[in-house]
Amino acid sequence: MDMSYSSTSRRFLISFLALSILVFLLILYSNTRKIANSPDEEEFLDAAISDDLKKLKETFPKIKRVDVFPENWKCTALFFASKNVNLEAVQFLIERGADANGRGDCYSTPLIEAINEGSYEIVKLLIKRGADVNKKNRDKQNPLKAAIDNPILSAQFSNQIAKLLIKSGADVNGEKESFYTSTPLFSASIKSNLELVRLLLNAGANVNAADNMGNSVLSALMSFEWAPEESDSIYKITELLLAANAEINSVDVEGNSVLTKAALNPSLPLKMIQLLLDRGADVNSINSTGDSALSLLIENYRLWHETKDLTRRKIKLLIKEGANIHLKNTKTGCTPLQLSIRSDIPEISKLLILGGAEINSNSECEIVSLSEAAFYDSAETVKLLLDHGSQEINAQKQNGTPLINAVQNGNFSLVKMLITQGANIDAQHTVEGCTALYYAARHGSFAITKYLLDQGAITETKEPCKNSILIAAVLSDSYSTVKLLLDYGLKDVNGQNDEGTPLTVAASYSSLSILRLLLERGAKINLQDNKGDTPLNALVKEANFNDNNDLKWNVIERAKFFIRHGAQVNLQNKEGVTPLLSSALRYPYDLTKLLIDKGADVNAKSDFGCSILLKAVSVKWIYFREDMWPEELNQQYRTAKLLISKGADVNAKNEDGYTVLMAAIWPGKTSAKLAKLLIDHGADVNAKSKNGLTPLQKAINENQLEVIHLLLEKGAKNESRGD
Fold first, then answer.
1. Does 549 share its domain with 599?
2. Which of 73, 74, 62, 58 lies closest to 38, judged by CA?
3. In the chain, what percentage of residues exceed pLDDT 70?
4. How many C-beta atoms lie closer than 10 Å to residue 361's C-beta?
5. Do 536 and 579 belong to one domain?
6. Which of 45, 233, 505, 588 is least buried, going by the fewest C-beta atoms within 10 A?
7. CB neighbourhood size of 208 (10 A)
8. Which domain CATH number covers 481?
């Protein structure tokens, strides 16, 4: 009996609990489900949104909930009244029970909106009626940050609101959330608001709070570019922060110290650096890349074109205040002296040398001090280095020896100084393998070339230098230097190098006077270079046929010059290309005519079986922008017509059986004109390539309707390809 009663009681209790839970869930659901607004509530909200105070007051008696909200925004009437800066509406709603904090799911609060709209009276009223001065908007911005960050608000208003908020209990340190990753003190400092910074510090703001990049307020302040008129405020703010025990040697995530950032900031004056140093900044702090403030200033000197004088003064100040001039970058091994030479700051290099900096380079750093000084043509620095015991007279890494660099700069006095000090006159460039004499000739430096020759410089180049000394002079287009070398007895007037022979190089790069000189000294007019090109072929291949060319590049005159001196017009290079084929490729009608008149074979073929006419009609680089190349298109047509008139085979094929007519069909407007020219002169409209392609199929592939009609009119057969 007792057991039965007990079991029944337990079942009843379980059923009751289950029913209670169900009822609770139903109540919870009813409280959280969407509550549709009545027409009166909608009218009330419309009045708030449209800032219609009269209508707002008229509709209020008809509604049941003062904090009614539109479903899409979830913001109450008080929010809209604050946003509309309607003090009377705000007062009306609050007096009738509106929640001063609005709804939690609205994107902002009435207080923040009143701040953003610049209404001190509404802000004051909302706080008085219980608005939470630390409640954030959807972006996690609190009211104090809103007052400081809004760029529209005046500094005076921001300060006034900040005082009110702080007095009312606002958190002066905020939280690092969302994209508001800094505190109010950060914002006030960065806006150079001295009064607000003082207010926040007096209210207990954390002067050493860091943002998400590891910057303290002081560090961030040193990073911004400041206008000249802000300089005084920033200096005073820095003094305030330091007086509040800001960590002067704090570093960011990259290890850059406050001093390093200040030194690298061209908008900060010298007195800012002095202030930091006076307050104990570590002048030798090293960042994650192994650089100190001194090395970074020197290394980046060239970047600050407008503030180079200020940068030099900052460098001098750091050195004066104990910056370690021997400190090597922990990763590159480079010293301040090496960096100053590379940055071409002779004044600083001198200061470092006289201050006892290590003169000779270390093995880790890629910079060789003496070579680098010569590279930047700093004779004063070179002399200082030598006078203070430099042992690098022949040292080099990437830039060549000091002598080679002096030669390349054309600094004759420096060249003499280095040779007098024992520079190896025949040392080869580490990378290019060429000697000082080569570079003197390449730059057309007559005086230096003569001096090096008189000093016994070797006149033959060695690997990996690719050209002879004579070709170097030819490339410089210096007649006097070329003549000097020939007078000195250089025997390689017909020598071969990667660039060619002296005459094939001179064909395109030198004046006619140098061409005459080379021929007078024994250069062979038909000697082929390692590509098989004669001077004439090299000229036609390399020359630019623009109408605006300088007269010294006049191809026609040069071609006539070579032909007068016995140049053969039909010699082929290693690819079977003749001067005429090169000319036809570029459409210079006058040059093509000259070569033909001098006996050029119009039916010569290259090693790939391409005839001159086939090449002339097939070059397609023009058709992409035919409107830009009208003269080139005209030249192409005239050249093709000339070749045909001189007996060029209109049915010539290349090794794939591709005919001249097929080659002439491409997606250009002049394709039909070329095709008609060829057909009118006997081109076979039904010829097939090795893979069965016909001119008609080519025209169909290129969507050339005019050519298709022309071919069909001339008897082309519409056959499918055999492949």
1. no
2. 62
3. 90
4. 25
5. no
6. 233
7. 15
8. 1.25.40.20
Q: What pLDDT score was predicted for residue 70?
A: 81
Confidence of residue 142 (pLDDT cuts 50, 70, 90): very high
Q: Is the pLDDT of residue 29 over 70?
A: no
Render pLDDT for 51-105 as a digit per residue (tens, 0 to 9). Answer: 999 999 999 999 988 988 887 778 999 999 999 999 999 999 999 999 999 876 8
Q: What is the mean pLDDT of residues 180-199?
A: 90
DSSP state of 153: S
This prediction's pTM: 0.78
Domain match, 575 and 707 both: yes
Q: Structure tokens of 74?
A: 């979830």
230 within domain boundaries: no
Q: 289 in a domain, yes or no?
A: no
Q: What does each C-alpha distance from 348 to 259, 351, 377, 388 come to in angstroms?
A: 20, 5, 15, 16
Q: CA-CA distance, 648 to 417, in Å (whole number)? A: 65
Q: Which amino acid is at 707?
A: V
Range of the domain at 497: 425-558
486, 553: one domain: yes
Query: In 3D, which of 176, 280, 117 has the Cα closest to residue 185?
Result: 176
**Burial level of 95, CB count in 10 A (0-12/13-18/19+)?**
exposed
CB 77 within 8 A of CB 66: yes
> How many domains is the chain built from?
2
Token pair 């040059």: residue? 591
- Tens of pLDDT, residue by residue over 212-267, are 777 899 999 999 999 999 999 999 999 999 999 999 999 998 999 999 999 999 99
605 SS3 class = strand
Residues 429 and 548 placed together within one structural domain of the fold: yes
Least confident of 544-558, 571-585, 701-715: 544-558
Does a structural domain hold residue 614?
yes
What's at 217, amino acid-wise? V
Asked if 521 and 630 sit in the same domain, the reply is no
Q: Given 558, 588, 604, which residue is the final one in a domain?
A: 558
Secondary structure (3-state) at 27: helix
483 occurs within a structural domain: yes
Can you say how many angstroms the Cα of residue 263 is from the centroid of all Cα atoms in its chain? 25
Q: pLDDT averaged over the chain? A: 89
